[in-house]
C-alpha cells in the first residue's frame, strides 16, 4: 500500500460509545417533564438493572462507578486502620475507593492469563487488619469468584466486586456483581453500556443498600431528617433515561463483542510471541477489552508496536494500564509484584467494540500480523 493510500484509511477507534436516536428521545422525554433530578427514571433504571444484570439484588444508582465503590466501602464500615486486598493491575479507582475512606489498599499480584487477582496471593496478604477483598473483573473476564468467596468466608472477610468493565459477565453461571457484599458497575461512556456518567451498586442485603442510599443523598431517607453525614452522589433522571435505553441494547452488543473477539482469536492465532486472550473454563467473557500480550516485551517495545498500529495502519489501540497502581505517585510503593509488572509491559488492547465492520476486523488482523512480522 502506498503512503498516500494509507493516509486515506480512516482511523479505527479503540473504543466507540454508541448513542442513538432512542437515547436522544429518552433524554428529550425527561427534559419535557421539567423534572430532571433523581426521580422515577432512576427508580425504574435501578429495578431494570437489578432484574437484568444483578440477579434481582437491590441496585442503587449513583453519579459514577467510583462513587458507587466509595459509598459501598463506607456502607460496609470501612475506615482508618482497616486493610482491603486489591489487585494492582487495574484502574486506580479500585484502590482509590479504599484509600479515600482512610483505609489501606494492600496490593497483590495477578494471574498472568486472566489478568485478574491471583486467589493464591490473597491469603498470604491477610493480616489482623484485613477486613475485605476487592477483586476486579478486568477487561470483562470474571475473577475466580468461587475460590475468592470460599477464602473470604473461611477468614471472615467481606468481598466487594469491581465489575466496572464486566456487565453481564458470568462465573460458573452466576452474574458478576452478585457474589459479594456489593458489586459496582460503571456507566462511563467507553464501558459496555453507558448513562453518560454513572454507576450502579448491587447490594447483597437491604441494610447495605439502605446505607448506600443514605450516603448518596446527604444521609436523608426522609427529606430534611438527615440520619448521617452523606454526599450528593445522585444520578439524574436524564442519565437514567439514557441508561435504560442502553440496558435494552446490551445483550446485542455483548454478543457482537464476543463475535468480534472470536474473529480476532482466529485471525491472530499462532503468531510467535503473541498471546490472544485466555478464557477460563466456567467464565463468560464480555470483552470490554480484547487484550493481547506481547510475550516478554519491555514496555518500550510494546509502545513501539502500538505506535506502528496507530500511525502506519490507522488501527486504534490502548494500554490498560501502563503503570501498576502501587507504582503510581498516588501510592508510590516499592513493593515487588513481578507478574503485574511484566503484564503491564506486555499488554495491548485492540478494538473489539460492537461498531466494527468486517473490513475493520480484517484490517486489525492484518495490521497486527504485519507489525508482529507474521505476514499479513
Ligand atoms: C471505569 C472503572 C472504574 C471507575 O468507574 P467510573 O464510572 O469511571 O467512576 C473503576 N474500576 C475500573 C476497573 C474501571 O474500569
From TrEMBL:
<dbReference type="InterPro" id="IPR015421">
    <property type="entry name" value="PyrdxlP-dep_Trfase_major"/>
</dbReference>
<dbReference type="InterPro" id="IPR015422">
    <property type="entry name" value="PyrdxlP-dep_Trfase_small"/>
</dbReference>
<dbReference type="GO" id="GO:0008483">
    <property type="term" value="F:transaminase activity"/>
</dbReference>
<keyword id="KW-0032">Aminotransferase</keyword>
<keyword id="KW-0663">Pyridoxal phosphate</keyword>
<dbReference type="InterPro" id="IPR000653">
    <property type="entry name" value="DegT/StrS_aminotransferase"/>
</dbReference>
<protein>
    <submittedName>
        <fullName>DegT/DnrJ/EryC1/StrS family aminotransferase</fullName>
    </submittedName>
</protein>
<dbReference type="Pfam" id="PF01041">
    <property type="entry name" value="DegT_DnrJ_EryC1"/>
</dbReference>
<keyword id="KW-0808">Transferase</keyword>
<comment type="similarity">
    <text>Belongs to the DegT/DnrJ/EryC1 family.</text>
</comment>
<dbReference type="InterPro" id="IPR015424">
    <property type="entry name" value="PyrdxlP-dep_Trfase"/>
</dbReference>
Amino acid at each position: 500500500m502506498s503512503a498516500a493510500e494509507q493516509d486515506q484509511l480512516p482511523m479505527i477507534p479503540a473504543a466507540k460509545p454508541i448513542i442513538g436516536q432512542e437515547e436522544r428521545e429518552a433524554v428529550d422525554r425527561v427534559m419535557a417533564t421539567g423534572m430532571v433530578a433523581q426521580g422515577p427514571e432512576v427508580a425504574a433504571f435501578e429495578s431494570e438493572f437489578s432484574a437484568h444484570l444483578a440477579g434481582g439484588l437491590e441496585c442503587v444508582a449513583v453519579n459514577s462507578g467510583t462513587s458507587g465503590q466509595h459509598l459501598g466501602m463506607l456502607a460496609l464500615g470501612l475506615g482508618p486502620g482497616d486493610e482491603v486486598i486489591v489487585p494492582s493491575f487495574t484502574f486506580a479507582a479500585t484502590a482509590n475507593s479504599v484509600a479515600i475512606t482512610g483505609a489501606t489498599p494492600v496490593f497483590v499480584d495477578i494471574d498472568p492469563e486472566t489478568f485478574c487477582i491471583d486467589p493464591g496471593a490473597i491469603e498470604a496478604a491477610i493480616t489482623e487488619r484485613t477486613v475485605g477483598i476487592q477483586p476486579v473483573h478486568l477487561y470483562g473476564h470474571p475473577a475466580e469468584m468461587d475460590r475468592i468467596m470460599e477464602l473470604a468466608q473461611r477468614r471472615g472477610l467481606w468481598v466487594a466486586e469491581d465489575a466496572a468493565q464486566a456487565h453481564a459477565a458470568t462465573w460458573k453461571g452466576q452474574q458478576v456483581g452478585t457474589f459479594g457484599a456489593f458489586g459496582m458497575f460503571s456507566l462511563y461512556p467507553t464501558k459496555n453500556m453507558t448513562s453518560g456518567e454513572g454507576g450502579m451498586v448491587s447490594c447483597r442485603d437491604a441494610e447495605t443498600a439502605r446505607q448506600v442510599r443514605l450516603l448518596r443523598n446527604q444521609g436523608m431517607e426522609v427529606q430534611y431528617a438527615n440520619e448521617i453525614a452523606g454526599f450528593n452522589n445522585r444520578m439524574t433522571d436524564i442519565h437514567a433515561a439514557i441508561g435504560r435505553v442502553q440496558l435494552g441494547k446490551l445483550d446485542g452488543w455483548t454478543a457482537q463483542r464476543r463475535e468480534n473477539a472470536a474473529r480476532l482469536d482466529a485471525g491472530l492465532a499462532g503468531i510467535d510471541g503473541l498471546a490472544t486472550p485466555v478464557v477460563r473454563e466456567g467464565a463468560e467473557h464480555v470483552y470490554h477489552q480484547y487484550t493481547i500480550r506481547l510475550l516478554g516485551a519491555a514496555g518500550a517495545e510494546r509502545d513501539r508496536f502500538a505506535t506502528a498500529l496507530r500511525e502506519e495502519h490507522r488501527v486504534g489501540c490502548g494500554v490498560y494500564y501502563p503503570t501498576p497502581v502501587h507504582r503510581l505517585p498516588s501510592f508510590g510503593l516499592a513493593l515487588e509484584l513481578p507478574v503485574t509488572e511484566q503484564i503491564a509491559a506486555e499488554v495491548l488492547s485492540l478494538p473489539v467494540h460492537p461498531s466494527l465492520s468486517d473490513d475493520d476486523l480484517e484490517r486489525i488482523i492484518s495490521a497486527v500480523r504485519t507489525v508482529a512480522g507474521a505476514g499479513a
